[in-house]
Amino acid sequence: MTNARIASRTRTTSESSIELELDLDGTGSSSIDTSVPFFDHMLTAFAKHSLTDLRVKATGDTHIDVHHTVEDTAIVLGQAIREALGDKTGISRYGDALVPLDEALAQAVVDISGRPYLVHTGEPAGFEMHLIGGHFTGSMVRHAFEAITFHAGLTVHVNVLGGRDPHHIAEAEFKAFARAFRQAKSLDPLVVGVPSTKGAL
Fold first, then answer.
1. Main-chain dihedrals φ then ψ at residue 15, nearest 5 degrees
2. Is the CB of residue 110 less than 8 Å from the CB of residue 178?
3. Is residue 156 within 8 Å of residue 183, measured between CB atoms?
4. Considering the entire predicted model, what is its pTM?
5. Rg of the chain over all Cα atoms, to the nearest angstrom
6. What's the start-to-end Cα distance of the chain, in Å?
């Protein structure tokens, strides 16, 4: 590989402070500390199943709510993904995955399109109000995907096909997204240049 697909980003506001490093061609190793334990669990799963090496250190006003820290971390993750992808030469571009976690089942489709768009459906009624791990509300799952897709320039469809346990549903969503992203970011030796008739993504 001629160019390393790595990125390092920071973001500091009155609400949070984020330091993040990633390598898109890693093995899935991670060191995650966002001060939001369930989100640490989700980002660890994302790293492992997308084969992205990921280091995150984040602090924020979690005494008020986890919202700012989760959303700002997802913003920085999206920015780093976009930077690490570079001009997208040789990528597969598309990926899809169907991932179960016990009774939960989630599907994700990713297009590294340069056009931010999220379609997020199927979470059961009331899911957004559930506290997962006593601190992370179900509504933060969509917020995280919105921030990642917008700042990474991805088109993403996530659909929950079934599930009862909020933890299982959220984890199936993140793992499905990770597996689909793993396919989409992969380098395809048959692809010459950028996989778009426009010549750019």
1. -105, -25
2. no
3. no
4. 0.96
5. 16
6. 20
Strands 117-121 and 6-12: unpaired
Determine the average pLDDT of the residues in 174-194. 96
Dmax (CA) for the chain in angstroms is: 50
Q: How far apart are CA 31 and CA 48, in angstroms?
A: 11
Tokens of 68: 């700012």
The tokens for 175 are 């793992």
And the tokens for 126?
């009331």
Contacts of 198 by beta carbon, 8 Å cutoff, 6+ apart: none
Amino acid at 168: H
Q: Is the CB of residue 85 less than 8 Å from the CB of residue 60?
A: no
Nearest to 46 by CA among 67, 32, 62: 32
Here the tokens at position 1 are: 């590989």
> Tell me: the pLDDT tens digits for 27-66?
999 999 999 999 999 999 999 999 999 999 999 999 889 9
User: Do 144 and 70 contact (CB within 8 A), yes or no?
Assistant: yes
Residue with tokens 């489709």: 109
Contact 93, 111 (CB under 8 A): yes
Residues in the chain: 201
